[in-house]
Amino acid sequence: MIPLQTITAPADGLCVDMDADVYHRVRAMNASTLKSGLKSMRHLRHALDSPPTPPTPAMLLGKMLHTAVFEPEKYATIYRTGPLNPKTNESYGVGTKAFNEAAEEAAKEGYELVASGDLIKVESMRAEIMLCEDARRAVENSEHREVSLFWTRDGEKCKGRPDSVKSGGGFFHDLKTCSNISEYALQRAVWSLGYDISAAWYVDGWKRLYGETLPVFLTFVETEPPWCVVMYELDPDAIEVGRQRGNELWRAYQASKASGDWWVVPPQEDLPMLSLPEWAMRQYDNAIAEPVGISDDESPF
After folding, report:
1. Angstrom distance (rounded) from CA 156 to CA 153
2. Max CA-CA distance within the chain?
3. Distance CA 219, CA 163 (A)
4. What's the predicted TM-score (pTM) here?
5. What is the torsion angle, in degrees rounded to the nearest 10, for the CA atoms of residue 264, residue 266, residue 268 and residue 274?
6. How far apart are CA 134 and CA 130, in angstroms?
7. Counting Cβ atoms within 10 Å, is residue 104 exposed (0-12), middle (13-18) or buried (19+)?
8. CB within 8 A of 142, min separation 6: which ones?
9. pLDDT tens digit string along 52-101?
10. Residue 175 forms beta bridges with which residues?
C-alpha cells in the first residue's frame, strides 16, 4: 500500500530535474509518511490515504529558505511581495482581500506573493548561512541540489528528497530551521522530529541504488534574530538508531498492511500500562520503594 497520489513513480535512480510539487504527488513511501507511524499505525494509514495537507506558515517559510539557499536563481524569479496599501505605504497583509486577489493573478504568471516580512526574514537567514564557512562550502560543493531519489524495498516503491547530495565520497546535506540553537535542543529535535530516521532513509536508499554509504551533514539556522547558524555531521551511531527506528516502523507497517489491523496501540495480550516519564519516576524513587496502599473502599473499581 502506497500513498494515494496521482503520479506513478519513475524508474529507480536519481531524478535531478523533478519539481518538488511533482515529487510530492508521486506514489511512493517516504520518510515523512513512515514517521507518522511514530504516533500509531492508524496515523500512518491516514497519511497514506490522505492528500497532502496545505502547508503551514512555518512550512512555507522553510520552502522559501530552501529555495533561497539551494536554488537562488529560482528564488529570485518566483517570490515577490504583495501590493502596497496606499494608506500605509506597506504591503497588504497575507489573507486580506487585496492580497488574495493579487496572489491569484501572480499565480497565473508563475510567481508567488509573500509577506514582505517573510522575504526580509528569509534573506537574513540565508545571509547568515552563507557566512558560516562550513555550511557555505557544503552548499557550494554539492553535486545535486533538491533532487529526488527512487528505489524499491520489499517490492514497494520508496522515495526521498535530500536538500543536496555529493556522490563519490561526498555527503548528504540537509538544512533545518530551529528556535533554539543549543546542542541539547538540537539533540532533542533530532530525536523528536525523527531527523535520524530521515537520515538513515536517505543513506540506505542511496546505498541500495549506488552501493555507497554517505555521511549526513545538518545545518541549523534560527528563525529569529540573530539567526545563528551551526553545522554538524550527524553521528553514525545516531543514524544507526534512526535505521533501527525506521526498520521497526517498516515492519509494523508491513504487518498492518498484511493483517488490515491499523492499530493505535500495538496488539498485546494484556491491557497496556501507562507510566510517567523516566525522569519523573527517578525523581520519586523513594515513593516507589515505599508505595502508599489504598483500601478496597477507596478503590474506584
Report:
1. 5
2. 74
3. 11
4. 0.87
5. -70
6. 9
7. exposed
8. 70, 164, 165, 166, 173
9. 777 788 888 999 999 999 999 999 899 988 888 888 888 888 888 888 88
10. 219
